[in-house]
Amino acid sequence: MTIVISKPDKNKTRQRRHARVRGKISGTAERPRLNVYRSNKNIYAQVIDDVEGVTLASASTLDSEVSGNNKTEKAASVGEVVAKRAAEKKISDVVFDRGGYLYHGRVQALAEAARENGLKF
Fold it and tell me: Sorted alphabetically, which InterPro entries does this protein's record hold (predicted)?
């Protein structure tokens, strides 16, 4: 008799966590939502007004302005770029949406760099 132990799908649990958090937080024009999406290769950040359903500013590791030697440094660079692009649109206060990811590593680096460059959350 063999017992099969199934591991939970990490992305599915992250999506459930994200949906739970999204039920509680929402971005407005005065205080939009800074959303983070992390793939294996890249990281993406968007400043979103959920009332209008529009993206006000965005940045990712695919942008030419982003630099770094490893994924964490690139994530910090994305945080810096998205903060500068938000500042150009006169956005200083945001709600941070970590997308169901743990506040650690690349997500933390992006958040701290965005804070250092003028975003308040």
Answer: Ribosomal_L18, Ribosomal_uL18_bac-type, Ribosomal_uL18_bac/plant/anim
> Tell me: the pLDDT tens digits for 24-57?
999 999 999 999 999 999 999 999 999 999 999 9
Of 101, 33, 109, 102, the residue nearest 77 (C-alpha): 109
The pTM score is 0.92
**CA distances to 6, 16, 26, 89, 97 from 23, in Å:** 29, 11, 8, 26, 11
Number of domains in the chain: 1
**What is the span of the domain harbouring residue 112?**
10-116
Instruction: Confirm whether 1 is domain-assigned.
Output: no
